[in-house]
Amino acid sequence: MELDDRKVKILKAIIKNYLETGEPVGSRTISKYVDLKLSPATIRNEMADLEELGYIVQPHTSAGRIPTDKGYRFYVDDMMATKEAELVVKENELTDREKELDSMKEFLNEKVDRVEELLQNVAKVLAKDTNYATMVTTPQVKGNRLKFVQLSQLEPNKILAVIVMEGNLIRNKVITISDELSQENLLKLNILLNTTLTGLTLQEMNLGLVAKMENQAGEYTKIIKEVLDAIVETISSADNLKIYTSGATNIFKYPELSDSSKASELIYTLEEKQSLTDFVMEDEEQHGNHGIQVYIGNETPVEAMKDCSVVTATYELQDGMKGTIGIIGPKRMDYEKVVEKLKTIQTQLDDVFKKT
Amino acid sequence: MELDDRKVKILKAIIKNYLETGEPVGSRTISKYVDLKLSPATIRNEMADLEELGYIVQPHTSAGRIPTDKGYRFYVDDMMATKEAELVVKENELTDREKELDSMKEFLNEKVDRVEELLQNVAKVLAKDTNYATMVTTPQVKGNRLKFVQLSQLEPNKILAVIVMEGNLIRNKVITISDELSQENLLKLNILLNTTLTGLTLQEMNLGLVAKMENQAGEYTKIIKEVLDAIVETISSADNLKIYTSGATNIFKYPELSDSSKASELIYTLEEKQSLTDFVMEDEEQHGNHGIQVYIGNETPVEAMKDCSVVTATYELQDGMKGTIGIIGPKRMDYEKVVEKLKTIQTQLDDVFKKT
DNA sequence: GTTAGCACTCATTCTTTTAGAGTGCTAATA
DNA sequence: TATTAGCACTCTAAAAGAATGAGTGCTAAC
């Protein structure tokens, strides 16, 4: 059997209606809902076919149909394709979107200083806006270059290292050293570090270089080593990835997710963040079209989210630093709106970061 | 009517049993539970009295009794009084506690570098340990002194200010300036700032001083102003108070809190943090005995927590920087254990911070 | 190929029944 | 006089039963 034109129309109608109501949809509903002028009985036949094809199921014998993951997948793929086509046409219709964009930009600009605060705000706003849960990662430094290091004396045996990367990513690290260090030597160390390391990526700080530096440092080999370790630890991406979540409690708005055990598991996942990290890692490998990716139900790599859908977008700073924004909602989320929002934010962030 | 000795015994037994089971407790249960050798009938009479006195209620006519807030309050007050007395006696029985303390200290020491990470861990461990939700605030700088400021050029019109307070509290702030600044002038500014401000509290950086500085800065008045604003903003306590929460999903372990709407509200409060801030602010005024404070039900200043109890403890760093640790659970939480744990952590943190 | 009609299924809701826990009161007991 | 045994009574929670209605699948007619 084939998915002919009429079946597609009916399938889309079923899914659309289900997205709106969250209730299984019956043949009568569809016969009114769609412009095909068909009787419920005919729709029923088509529905039986669609069920056989695996796009929809009945929760129980005497209920209407709801989409399967395969059904959602079809719907989303179709939507993404249409969107692409539309975009080419609608170039001039951008005013609405631009307005929204501007109002958001204003908000975002308030706090550009602190990337992290900004991202936290993105998560918050997006959650409030969509009524889903959100996550935003800090940008991943991959091949990002060191701008400078600044060592300062904190206490006799403690040094504060301020590490600044391209893109103004700043990290502090307190290093406890075994031997004391004079002010003068600290200065020397500072210069040595900066002349040697400035402009390098983590990958380029290889063994030879380190050996050379340790050589030059003379009696301070040990300290250099500690400082270098700190730098590596600090800028190595694993340790660097922070995830901000927001709107976890939005899931209570969707009955299919809000029973105690599911909600608990899901919120725990959002709070605990470890599995989100895994998710983001895997996600990175995927991203193709527009950097927007949709995971439906079991497609997510995280067990706790198998009743959810997740839509992710990558954003990019200058210097190729990439981060991920994700929206977590029920499978019947408003994919269209979500994708739209994500695209807006994407443009938005690109703008903010590129301009600054 | 008076609370005679026997009534107290029975009341305590009721509450203790209720803490364990979470079920209304009946006369038969108590007649076995307590060593009074009284028949259920007698207990019933006493219970009727206790109800009249407002310490317990029946959820419905044919159920056992559960404690009222007043009942809990009595229980907790009594417990705290007893604990105090015990402490004097048990000086030598500390080994057990000390062991626990040591194992925790080891863990805590791993990451002393980053106070914030440490505190986040405290929240996490405590939540896992107690099965309640927890919150931990960053220490409040009150009359804390500036150790030094370090300005570095980030980009032509951007300066990175690293602000270090006594107790090694570090803050970064990116300042966007309107006019460019030469390397040399940056150095001058650095020196000016440090000679003038080092060792001062926020309160001491008053108007006269600022005026004087601005005077000395000559044409850089504007920049000085911006830097100062940044410093003030950065170390002023309102902006500084961060709250880490953990174990929010633990509340699902207690049926009386885990129905959808209550859970949602509570978790939202924990995620959103604004009302927690208010809580902590109010809490600060209270703290008397041992810095441990118990809020039962409506005693909490936060509406969303009126079905919970909250136990808070203050911890103290050197230099009088104080923070708060809170445990949020159902009213029938194990107060004894919670207080014990908090005291351990208190000692613990004191230790870690004083030694470093 | 489409549709009207009808018997059938099954979740949901409401009602009824039952079981059991626990009480309050009264009268007997020590 | 304080305690206790006994019993009728209350009320919840769980189980069982009945009614409702949405929606289906199938058959036969159009």
Summarize the structure.
The structure is a homodimer of 356-residue chains. Chain A has 356 residues and is of the alpha+beta class. Chain A has 13 helices and ten strands.
Oligomer: homodimer
From the helix content, strand content and strand pairing of chain A, which structural class follows? alpha+beta
CATH superfamily of the largest domain in chain A: GAF domain
Beta fraction of the residues of chain A? 15-25%
- What's the alpha carbon Rg of chain A, rounded to whole Å? 26 Å
**Major protein interface:** A-B, 32 and 31 residues
CATH topology annotation of the largest domain in chain A: Beta-Lactamase
Average residue pLDDT of chain A: 85
Helix content of chain A: 40-55%
Count of runs of 4 or more consecutive helical residues of chain A: 13
CATH class label of the largest domain in chain A: Alpha Beta
CATH architecture of the largest domain in chain A: 2-Layer Sandwich
Biggest beta sheet attributes of chain A: 5 strands, antiparallel
Side by side, the strands of the main sheet of chain A go 7-3-10-9-8
How many beta-strand runs of chain A?
A: 10
Q: How would you describe the shape of chain A?
A: elongated
